[in-house]
User: Which sequence fits this backbone?
C-alpha cells in the first residue's frame, strides 16, 4: 500500500470527519453539560444563573424532580423486559436453529415486529388494552367469562402492558442475534458430544451456552442501552401514568424539559442516565474482552 | 475483458477538489447575481367572492390593501379546529392569505408552542393559548397584546358577543387583551334523562354533589345489570384530571394558593375533603376506567351508554347532539351540582393570539379575526362550542345552552400565572394517583403542597 507523504496528508483527510464528529457529538454533550450547570427555565422569565452541581444534587435529593421514582420504574421495566426477552429470544433461536418444514417462513415472520415503527406498536397495544369490553384483550377475557380488566388504570397492570409491548417488539431482535451466533458455531464439538451420548440438556449446558456467552453479553448490552432510554411506547400507551407508575428516567427528563420548562434539571438527569449507560456498557464490554 | 482503469489517490483528490471548487464558485455567483432587497408588490384581489359554508352561505368582499403572504397557525386537536381546517379556503378566497393550520393534542401543543416561542422562532404566526397558559405566554413576551387592534376593529369584532366571563378568563391577562376567544369550555353536568326518569328521579335530585352520590348509589345495582355505571369522570393523568378536581376543590371551599402571598393551600382540609369526595364518587359509583379516562374516553362512555351521568366540558355537547349520536335525544345538561360551600364549575377555553416573533403579524390578525368571527363561530359550533353568544343561538342547543351560560356566570378559572402549567401537571398526577388507589387524598395533597412551595419559590412568587 502506498504510504502517505506526510502526517499533513493524514490530518487533511481526517479533518472533515473529525470536525463533523465534534459538531455532531461533542458539542451537544458539552452544551448539555453547560445547561446542567446553570439554572435555565425556558417557559417563564427567570434569569439564567450559574448554579454548579445544584441541578444534580436537587435531582437526587428533591422528590419534586421525580428522579428516584423514575429510576425505580426504569429498573423494573428494564429488568423485567430484558429478562423475558433474553429467555424467550434464546428459546426461539434454539427452535429456529433446527431444520424443519416451514422454518424459513418463521424466520421471516420473526423480523416483522422490528420493521414496525415504535409509535405504531404503541398505538396497537394501547388499542388492544383499552378498558372497554370491545378492546381486544378485554374482549378475549370477557369471552372467557373473566370480566373486564382496567389495564391502563392500575399502576401495576400498566407497567405489565408496557413490558408486554417491549417484549413483543424486541424479543425478535434477541432471537436474531442468538440465531446468527448459533448458525456459526462449529459442528464438530456437537457431533462429538452426540457420539459420546450427551443429552440435549447437557449439550446446551456444556457446549451451546458457554460458546454463546460473548454474543449473549453483546445482545444484552445493546438491548440494555435501548431499554434504559425507552420513550415512545410510554408516551403513546400510558403517558407515564397512572400517577407516575410508568414514568421512566427518559420520560421524566422529557417532562422536566418540555412540560415544566426546566431544561437544566432535564439536562442533569439525562447526563446521569448517560453516565449510568456508559458505566454499565464499559463493564460489559470489558467482560467480553476478557473472555475473548 | 480489459481490467478496469484504477484511479490514483492524487487524481481522485484533484477531481474532488475541482468538483467542490466549481460548486463553491457557482453557488457564490448565483447568490451575488440574485437581486437584493427587491420588493414584490402584490395587490389583493378586490373581487367579491361567494363562498358556501356547509349550512350557511356567506358573501364576502376582499378589500384592497389586505395583508398578503402565508402564515402558520397552531391549534388544539379538537373538533372545532379540525372543522376550521376544512373551511380555510374561504379565508384564502377572502384575503389571499395562505394559512397552514397545524393541530396538536393538548400536551403536544403546549410543548411545541413553548419550545418554538422560547427559542424566538418565527415558525408560527398564530398561537393557540389555553386560558391557563396566558400568563406564561404574556409574561415571557411570546405574544403581542392586541388592545389597539381590538379597538381599531371593534365594529368588525363586536366584543359584546363574547361573554364577559370568557373575555376575562380566556382573552385577557394583566388587564390586556391577548387575543380573541375561540373554543369555549365551561363545566356542566350531563345526565341521561331517560334513565333518571325510569328510576323516578328529576334534575332537582342532582342539585348537590351529595344528591348526585345518593342517586348514583341507588341506581347502581340496576344500572350494572344494564351494562352501565352511574358516573363517568375524567381522571387520566393530565390536564383533564386537574380540571375535574378543580370543580370539587371550589365546591368544598378550597383554593390552590393565597392570591396575595402565593402561599400554597392545596393540602387544606377543604382541598383534602374535595379530593376524598371525588375518589369516593369514582370508587363507589364511577365506571372503573376513570383513572385512565380522558376527554375522548369519557365522551365515548356517555355516547355509548356506558355511563348515566358525567360532569364535563359543555363543548362536548355538539358530539352528543350529532345526528349519528346514539344518545341524541336522551340527555340534558344542567349546572354543576353544589358542594358544601358553593357551585364551582371549572372554566377553560382557548384564545387565538399573535406570536411576537411572527414576520406577518397583519396577516395573523386577519386570520384571528376571521377564525373568531361570528359567522365562523356559528359554523364551528356545530362541532364544538365557541366563545361567542351567537354560537349558542342554534335552537338544538337549548338542552344545554342555559346550563352553560348559568355556569359561565359563576365559573372559576384555574390560576394562569406562568408556573401554572407545571403546577397543573403535578395536580393531575396527584389526582390520578388518588383515583387509581395508589395513595390517599391527604398524602397526595401533602406531597403536592411541598411541590407547589418549591415551584412557586423558584418562580419568584412565594417568598416562604
Assistant:
Amino acid at each position: 500500500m502506498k504510504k502517505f507523504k506526510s502526517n499533513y496528508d493524514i490530518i487533511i483527510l481526517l479533518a472533515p470527519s473529525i470536525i463533523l464528529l465534534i459538531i455532531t457529538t461533542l458539542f451537544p454533550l458539552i452544551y448539555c453539560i453547560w445547561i446542567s450547570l446553570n439554572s435555565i427555565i425556558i417557559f417563564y422569565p427567570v434569569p439564567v444563573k450559574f448554579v454548579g452541581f445544584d441541578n444534580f444534587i436537587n435531582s437526587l435529593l428533591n422528590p419534586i424532580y421525580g428522579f428516584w421514582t423514575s429510576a425505580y420504574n426504569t429498573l423494573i421495566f428494564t429488568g423485567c423486559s430484558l429478562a423475558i426477552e433474553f429467555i424467550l429470544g434464546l428459546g426461539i433461536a434454539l427452535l429456529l436453529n433446527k431444520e424443519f418444514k416451514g422454518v424459513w417462513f418463521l424466520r421471516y415472520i420473526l423480523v416483522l415486529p422490528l420493521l414496525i415503527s415504535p409509535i405504531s406498536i404503541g398505538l396497537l397495544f394501547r388499542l388492544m388494552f383499552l378498558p372497554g369490553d370491545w378492546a381486544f384483550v378485554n374482549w378475549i377475557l370477557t369471552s372467557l367469562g373473566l370480566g373486564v380488566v382496567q389495564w391502563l388504570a392500575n399502576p401495576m397492570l400498566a407497567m405489565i402492558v408496557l413490558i408486554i409491548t417491549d417484549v413483543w417488539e424486541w424479543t425478535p431482535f434477541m432471537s436474531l442475534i442468538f440465531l446468527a451466533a448459533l448458525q456459526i458455531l462449529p459442528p464438530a464439538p456437537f457431533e462429538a458430544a452426540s457420539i459420546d451420548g450427551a443429552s440435549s440438556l447437557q449439550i446446551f449446558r456444556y457446549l451451546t451456552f458457554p460458546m454463546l456467552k460473548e454474543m449473549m453479553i453483546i445482545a444484552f448490552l445493546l438491548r440494555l442501552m435501548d431499554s434504559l432510554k425507552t420513550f415512545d411506547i410510554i408516551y403513546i400507551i400510558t403517558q407515564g401514568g397512572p400517577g407516575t407508575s410508568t414514568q421512566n428516567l427518559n420520560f421524566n427528563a422529557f417532562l422536566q424539559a418540555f412540560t415544566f420548562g426546566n431544561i437544566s434539571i432535564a439536562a442533569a438527569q439525562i447526563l446521569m442516565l448517560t453516565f449510568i449507560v456508559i458505566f454499565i456498557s464499559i463493564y460489559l464490554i470489558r467482560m467480553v474482552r476478557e473472555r475473548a | 475483458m480489459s481490467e478496469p482503469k484504477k484511479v490514483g489517490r492524487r487524481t481522485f483528490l484533484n477531481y474532488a477538489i475541482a468538483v467542490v471548487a466549481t460548486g463553491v464558485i457557482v453557488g457564490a455567483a448565483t447568490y451575488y447575481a440574485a437581486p437584493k432587497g427587491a420588493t414584490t408588490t402584490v395587490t389583493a384581489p378586490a373581487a367579491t367572492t361567494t363562498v358556501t359554508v356547509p349550512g350557511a352561505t356567506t358573501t364576502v368582499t376582499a378589500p384592497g390593501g389586505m395583508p398578503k403572504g402565508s402564515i402558520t397557525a397552531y391549534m388544539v386537536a379538537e373538533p372545532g379546529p379540525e372543522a376550521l381546517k376544512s373551511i380555510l379556503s374561504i379565508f384564502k378566497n377572502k384575503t389571499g392569505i395562505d394559512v397552514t393550520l397545524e393541530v396538536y393534542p393538548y400536551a403536544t401543543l403546549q410543548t411545541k408552542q413553548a419550545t418554538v416561542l422560547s427559542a424566538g422562532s418565527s415558525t408560527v404566526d398564530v398561537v393557540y393559548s389555553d386560558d391557563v397558559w396566558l400568563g406564561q405566554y404574556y409574561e415571557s413576551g411570546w405574544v403581542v397584546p392586541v388592545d389597539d387592534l381590538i379597538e381599531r376593529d371593534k365594529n368588525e369584532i363586536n366584543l359584546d358577543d363574547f361573554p364577559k366571563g370568557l373575555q376575562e378568563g380566556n382573552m385577557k391577562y394583566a388587564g390586556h387583551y391577548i387575543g380573541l376567544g375561540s373554543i369555549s369550555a365551561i363545566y356542566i353536568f350531563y345526565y341521561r334523562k331517560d334513565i333518571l326518569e325510569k328510576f323516578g328521579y328529576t334534575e332537582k335530585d342532582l342539585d348537590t354533589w351529595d344528591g348526585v352520590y345518593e342517586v348514583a348509589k341507588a341506581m347502581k345495582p340496576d344500572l350494572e345489570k344494564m351494562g352501565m355505571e352511574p358516573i363517568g369522570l375524567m381522571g387520566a393523568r393530565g390536564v383533564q384530571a386537574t380540571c375535574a378536581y378543580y370543580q370539587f376543590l371550589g365546591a368544598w371551599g378550597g383554593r390552590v394558593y393565597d392570591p396575595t402571598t402565593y402561599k400554597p393551600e392545596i393540602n387544606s382540609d377543604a382541598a383534602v375533603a374535595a379530593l376524598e369526595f371525588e375518589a369516593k364518587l369514582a370508587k363507589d359509583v364511577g365506571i372503573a376506567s376513570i383513572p385512565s379516562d380522558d376527554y375522548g374516553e369519557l365522551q365515548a362512555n356517555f355516547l355509548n351508554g356506558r355511563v348515566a351521568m358525567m360532569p364535563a366540558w359543555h363543548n362536548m355537547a355538539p358530539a352528543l347532539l350529532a345526528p349519528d349520536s346514539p344518545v341524541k335525544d336522551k340527555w340534558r345538561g344542567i349546572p354543576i351540582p353544589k358542594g358544601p360551600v358553593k357551585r364551582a364549575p371549572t372554566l377553560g377555553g382557548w384564545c387565538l393570539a399573535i406570536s411576537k416573533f411572527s414576520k406577518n403579524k397583519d396577516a395573523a390578525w386577519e386570520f384571528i379575526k376571521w377564525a373568531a368571527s361570528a359567522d365562523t363561530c356559528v359554523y364551528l359550533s356545530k362541532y364544538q362550542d365557541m366563545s361567542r353568544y351567537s354560537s349558542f343561538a342554534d335552537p338544538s342547543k337549548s338542552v344545554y345552552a342555559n346550563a352553560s351560560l348559568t355556569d359561565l356566570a359563576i365559573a372559576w378559572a384555574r390560576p394562569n400565572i406562568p408556573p401554572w402549567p407545571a403546577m397543573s401537571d403535578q395536580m393531575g398526577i396527584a389526582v390520578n394517583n388518588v383515583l387509581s388507589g395508589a395513595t390517599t387524598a391527604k398524602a397526595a395533597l401533602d406531597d403536592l403542597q411541598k411541590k407547589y412551595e418549591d415551584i412557586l419559590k423558584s418562580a419568584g412568587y412565594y417568598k416562604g
Chain A is about 75% helix and 0% strand.
